[in-house]
Amino acid sequence: MMFYEKLDLLMNITKTANSSLAMYTSLDSSHISRLRRGERKLVKDADYLKKMAVYFTNHCTEAYQIKTLSDVLKSQPELLQDSDKTTEKIYHWLMGTEEAEHASISGFLNGISDFQFRKSTTVTDEFTNSGTKTPKKDVALYYGIKGKREAVLSFLSLIIESNQPTTLLLYSDESMDWLTGDSSFAAKWRDLLARVILKGNRIKVIHTVSRNLDEMLEALSKWMPLYMTGAIEPYYYPKKRDGVFKRTLFIAPKITAVTSSSLDMMEDQALNLLFKDKKALAALTSEFESYLFMCRPLMQIFTYHQKQQYLDLIKEFEKEATPTLLKSNCLNWVTMPNAVAESIINRSNSDDKEKLIQYFYDRKEAFEKGLEHCSFHTLLQLPSVTEIKEGVVNVAFTGIPDTSNICYTPNEYKAHLENTIQYLKNYDHYNLKVTSQKIHNHFILYVKEDLGAIVIKQNTPHAIFAINEINMTAAFWDYLKDEINLSEKDKTTALKDLDDLYNRL
Q1: Residue 453 lies in domain
Q2: Which residue of 34, 84, 220, 485 pairs with 40 in a disulfide if CB–CB is 3.0 to 4.6 A?
Q3: 7: domain CATH number?
Q4: Total domain count for the chain?
Q5: Mean pLDDT per 10-residue segment, the chain (505 residues)
Q6: Is this prediction's pTM over 0.85?
Q7: Does 121 reside within a domain?
């Protein structure tokens, strides 16, 4: 819907006259009329939108109004009892920010799913021998965006030349134009950084979450090849900063560092300094570590080689009793009958089968305990009867890589399907929505409200991304909530779909 259509709908729901809304928002009636007809475009960051949201919240009091509003906002009516949250939802809906956020999240998830390492896993000396001159002095000066690019290439080249594996310390809230504005430079940067990691270096990076969600997810996507190596630890500063002066700190302790400071929109005139002086490096390292102490982990990335760590993470995640959303292309692992879970684990290549079976029981117990008080909604795509009978349906959402390539036998899938039906009948808080739209086969999205989001990459290279930054968690929650559409609480349809499939097997 366009803005004018949304405005007209809200005014019709609340039976609001142009003059009434104009008086509340301090606008002319003719202005409201033109906005309502689409003859006047919405101004970016218009201050009257907040007032409109408050007005419509205060005038949606009747049951039919709340029902209509909940359908429009794709929210359960009971969630609209909090006026502040309702105002916020109406505001974002009018702004259209949710659609933009959803597109950003969808692109990020598809990027994770589609990611593959390039066939060549070694990096040539093409860029290190391509004319990058490393400075001989302890301090070198570079100017503007072009100078920052030269400084960064020298920074990475000096690390490669040092042959001293270390942990790089990276932070910047300056514009990313120096990296994104030149594809040729971005390729050099990416390959040199990959070479740095291949030499055994690790990275701690502090991301700027004050950027909008689109910028944040784009930045994370650009780091994806490096995240998949398991060599990067991302952090964020949880409080607001004034944002007047922008700062960059790239440090390889005891080797080299690049630093700069600039005002917004003046990066092309900024001074960039490259240091090799040991005292200067020690001072900059101390500055970074002091800032890092005030930061929190933005995201944890677990690769196949960190199996026990991410098994523990999922187990702890599931112990938290809070409303939960799950998007998967297969039945939920923890709704399996015990015999089916044991059969699948015993067919795996794991050396810790007994441990994994106990792990299944622990997760199942936490799942059932959570259902006593909190809702659990699953968006599910069912396989075809042919796929089930041919035994080609993969076991999903185990969190156990040893079982990621195992398929159900027809009898196992049928038993799991029957058990899922029993969970739906026995637990009021367990809900399932079957979709006919194809769900991407290569990732699972698992979100707990106000707690965190987990993205499980099911194809090679396997990885799990665990996010607990509050704004990103809220964005993933809203994204998945809209896909599942929590306003539609119809177990009958889901049970009918599952019963139909069960009877055809």
Answers
A1: 301-503
A2: 34
A3: 1.10.260
A4: 3
A5: 83 92 89 84 74 91 86 70 83 72 72 63 47 81 94 95 94 84 86 91 87 68 78 86 83 97 81 96 97 91 81 87 91 93 88 88 94 93 93 75 78 97 95 80 86 86 85 86 72 91 94
A6: no
A7: no
